[in-house]
Amino acid sequence: MWFRRDLRVTDNPALSEAAQSGKVLGLFVLDPALVRQSGAPRLAVLYRTLRALDQQLDGRLLIRRGKPQDVLPAVVAEFRVDSVHCAADFGPYGGQRDRAVEQALAVPMVRTGSAYAVDPGRVNRVGDHGYQVYSAFYRSWLDHGWPEPRRVPRFEWTCGIGDDIPADPRLSARLSLPKVGEYAARAAWRGFLRNGIDHYAKQRDRPDLDGTSRMSVHLKWGTIHPRTLLTELRPEHDSYRRELAWREFYADVLHRRPDSAREYYRPELRALRWSRGAIADAHLEAWAQGRTGYPIVDAGMRQLLAEGWMHNRVRMIVASFLVKDLHIEWMAGAQHFLNHLIDGDLASNNHGWQWVAGCGTDAAPYFRIFNPILQGKKFDPDGAYVRRYVPELRDVAASVIHEPWRDRSGVRRGYPDPIVDHAAERKAALADYRSIRGQ
Questions:
Q1: What is the C-alpha separation between 290 and 369, in angstroms, rounded?
Q2: Which residues touch 267 (CB under 8 Å, ≥6 apart)?
Q3: For the domain 261-437, what is the CATH code?
Q4: Alpha carbons within 13 A on the beta-carbon side of 58
Q5: What is the pLDDT averaged over residues 139-163?
Q6: What is the largest CA-CA distance in the chain?
Q7: What residues act catalytically?
Q8: Which fold has domain 117-146+180-256?
C-alpha cells in the first residue's frame, strides 16, 4: 500500500483492495520534489501525521527517501511484493509521477479511489466538457453522487527496515499547529457535528466566531475522506456540502487544465499592468507581515503566520487587497500562501487566487473588489478577530477599529497608517480591467 494523500486506515479504498492479499506492506515515500516545494509548517504537519499513522500501525509504516520511480521498484524486489496499490492522483505532478512509477514496476500498479468524493473528470457537460462555473458543476456533482464509505478490512501488516520520519523543520516560535492524524481528524469532525454544523450557514463568514470546521488540514493529508463527511451531513447542511464541493470543483478544473496551476486560466488577463520594483517589493512585504494599516487584512496575515491557517472569508479579503489595491500579481500571493498554509492545496489555493484576481473560473469577475473596511465591519463587527491578532489595536473602540486612523487615541505605537488609499486603488484597478476587456 503506497500511502500519499490518504494517511488513514478507515474508509481507504486502495487499502481495502490491497488487503485482499491478506498481507500488506505500508509504504510512504519522502519524495524530494515535493519536500522542496513545501513550506516548513506544511512539512511539520506531514511529519506529525506520518508519526500518527506509524503509531496506528504499531511502528510498521515503511519510510523510504528518494524518487518514487526508483524507490517503488526497489521495495517490490526487496519484499517480493506482487502488486502496488494506491489512490489515483489527478494533480499535474502526481499524474506524471505515477505514470513513471508504473513504467518502472515489474508488478501491477492498481489505483483505487482518490482524495475526492467524485474523481476529477467525472462530472461533465454535454460533449465531455468540464464546467467553468461552480453553480452548474455543483448541481451535476450532486446528481453524480458518491459511494458509501469503505469498512476497515481484515489483514496483516508486514514491515521492514526503512528511513526515520524526519524531525520537524525549524518553526517560528509563534506558530501553533493543530493535532493531526486520523484519530484527531475524527475527533475534530465529531466535535463539529455536535457543536458547529447547525450554525455553520450563519457563522461561516464570521472570523470573529469559531464557526468553521477547520477540517481542511485533515482533508489535505487524507486523514479523513470527504465522502465520510458527506455521508454524515443532513439535507439542511447544504452550505457545508457546497464548501466541500468547491474543493472538488477546483480539482476538476486543474485536472482538465494542468497549465492553470501556474498560468492564467483566462490568458487575456495576462495583459494587466502589475506593480513592479522597490515599491511593489515593500508593499508585498508589508502585506506578508500584516502591516498594511488595514486591520482586517493585517489580522488575516498575522493569523497565517501564527497558525498556518486563515479563515476563508479573510483569505478572499487579503487576496483582493494584494491584487486590486496593491496591484501585485496573484502568483506572488498564491506562493506565499503555499509557503505558510498547513492545508495548502495547489488546486484550491491557486484557483482561489485566480477567482479573486478575476482571471479564473468566474462569469463576471473583474469588478469584484473587496473593500477591507466594509468587509471588516460586516464580518468582524465588534473587532474581536482584529484584536486577537493585532495587539496594537486591542484598546481601540469597536466604532473605529476597522478605521483606526479616525481616532488614534487607543492605537498603540507602531501600528502603521494605511499604505495605500483603497478608494483610489479601486478606481485604478477597475480602469485597468476595463481596458483589457475593451469596455
A1: 19
A2: none
A3: 1.10.579.10
A4: 5
A5: 91
A6: 73
A7: 243, 246, 274, 312, 330, 353
A8: 1.25.40
The answer to pTM > 0.85 is yes
Question: What are the sequence ranges of the domains in the chain?
Answer: 1-114, 117-146+180-256, 261-437
Residue whose C-alpha is closest to residue 250's, from 335, 356, 367, 379 = 356
> 28: pLDDT confidence band, cut at 50, 70 and 90?
very high
The whole-angstrom separation of Cα 57 and Cα 1 is: 13
**Nearest-5° Cα angle at 309, 348 to 324:** 60
d(CA 130, CA 137): 8
The predicted structure's pLDDT at residue 368? 86
Per-residue pLDDT tens over the stretch 382-410: 999 999 999 999 999 999 999 999 999 99
Nearest CA to 349 out of 339, 360, 370, 334 is that of 334
Residue 223 cell numbers, joined: 486523514
CATH of 1-114, picked from 1.10.238.10, 3.40.50.2000, 3.40.50.300, 3.40.50.620, is: 3.40.50.620
Instruction: Determine contact, residues 186/58, Cβ cutoff 8 Å.
Output: no
